[in-house]
């Protein structure tokens, strides 16, 4: 109950930090989709790029988040704004599931459907936008779903470099050795992750081919 009382007394700050958290996650996920989906399409149609692209995304995932923030701090223009740095780091971490699921979704389209589309005279771009992407949409969204949940968790680390978000409560609570303050950041972050998982999951199921 102490945690609930603390959150109610500081509801304005909890809301403000939750909105900052959502902004960091939303913007980084949007950038990851804009980069990851085209890369997934490229490696699905050009298999020779498969290993280097997926290997690069896998390597990024192995770098500890605080270490990545540290690597990016000296970068000109970027390191001067903690929010820019956090958004770039979160975008990099969100790339792997989006690239991999886009690749899997495109490659999973039935070859008979592709041949039928070619027989109807569709161009490569028409096949991509009218056949492959619609059929792969649910698989791609599954990757986006994973990326969002990962980003919600990792965004709490962004507070370590002053980028804001619910991680501020967590780091403040650790410094004060106060469980109430830690949970005031952890609980809303968990709720945001669950809400994002359920929300994107509903859209994913609706787009699943029947």
Shape: elongated
What's the total helix number? 9
Major sheet description = none
Order of helices and strands: HHHHHHHHH
Arithmetic mean of pLDDT: 87
- How far the N terminus sits from the C terminus, by CA atoms, comes to 47 Å
Structural class: mainly alpha
Helical content, roughly?
over 70%
Cα-atom Rg, whole angstroms?
Answer: 20 Å
Q: Give the beta-strand count.
A: 0
Query: How much β-strand is present in the residues?
Result: under 5%
Low-confidence stretches: none
Describe this structure in words.
The protein is mostly helical. It is built from nine helices and no strands. Helix 1 crosses helix 9 (179-207), helix 7 packs antiparallel against helix 9 (179-207) and helix 8 (167-176) packs antiparallel against helix 9.
Condensed summary:
Helix content is 80%, strand content 0%.
Using brief descriptors, characterize the structure shown:
210 residues, 9 helices, mainly alpha, 80% helix, single chain
Topology:
Elements: H1 2-9, H2 11-45, H3 50-62, H4 65-72, H5 82-107, H6 111-119, H7 124-154, H8 167-176, H9 179-207
Helix pairs in contact: 1-9, 2-5, 2-7, 2-9, 3-5, 5-7, 6-7, 7-9, 8-9
